[in-house]
Amino acid sequence: MPKAVRFDSYGGVDVLKVVEVPMPEPGPGQVLVRVKATGINPGEAKIRQGLLHDRWPATFPSGQGSDLAGIVARTGPRVTAFAEGDEVIGFTDNRASQTEYALVEAGNLTARPAGVPWEAAGSLFVVGATAYAAVRAVALTAGDTVVVSGAAGGVGSVTVQLARRAGATVIGLAGPANHEWLAEQGVIPVSYGDGVADRIRQAAAKADAFIDTFGADYVELALDLGVEPSRVDTIVRFDAVQQYGVKFEGNAAGASAAVLAELAGLIAAGELEIPVAATFPLDQVRDAFRLLAGGHVHGKVVLLP
User: Fold this and answer.
1) In this structure, are residues 162 and 135 in contact, taking their beta carbons and an 8 Å threshold?
2) pLDDT score recorded for residue 250
3) What's the pTM?
4) Quick check: 14 and 286 in contact, CB under 8 A?
């Protein structure tokens, strides 16, 4: 029997467990994927802690995870785009990717190009779709200057690269340990913390747009810098949308197999990097989330079932 991550109640990492589950059977339009890699994300921790209960409640026992990459094990009726043995990248909306075998809608899969490592493929969807939507939301064009908070994190590290591809000057807020990597991406690194507004003003004459991947008071910082609310996108601060009229466009706005295919193509061509901070076997899922919870993680934490 395959193993899967489960939790039976809201709580800290200690509620997470890996249990044996029945082998899923693909229905019409579904594909059974033998999962090779599956990324973990901060939103999953918030759901598991019950912090998003009003918006996205859990039903118990709950599975976990959206990101996945793997090999097609079986296909259900009416699936023509994929066959057994195909290598795929995809996502599930059913909190069910952190497992050895996942059921996925065929429309949520795309082929894995040969040049995309499993770890990057399996952690691409959430951060990739979120970054893609955020960059689109602030309408970057050549000549714009955009500030990105959490610039070396999972979403931030993809956002700064896509913003550079859009032709913008990118200021990335991050700790000193990540400044070298940001500079290698053509990003102007700026340390966060006291005095950050002055450091941003020293780095650029003006800020045209702001993408907040971190939360805290970065939306207010963006407005203080003179950025129009319509060109501020936050993926963390629900409250700021109503309060200030900023945008809240993230994963849902970029969630498609077409976006996945485009991003995977960029990785295969060497034009996009998905930094991987650490990998863990499935049965060490608690350790993986402990590392993520510590913050200051450069890139992705990935489970390898």
Assistant:
1) yes
2) 85
3) 0.96
4) yes
State mean pLDDT over 243-265: 93
What average pLDDT does this structure show over 152-169? Answer: 97
Nearest by Cα to 32 from 80, 81, 78, 70: 70
* Radius of gyration in angstroms for the set of CA atoms belonging to the chain, rounded to a whole number: 19
HSE-up (13 A, CA, CB side) for residue 192: 20
**Owner of token pair 């190009």:** 113
Could you tell me how far CA 305 lies from the centroid of its own chain? 19
Interatomic CA distance for residues 29 and 145, integer angstroms: 44
pLDDT in tens, 204-228: 999 999 999 999 999 999 999 999 9
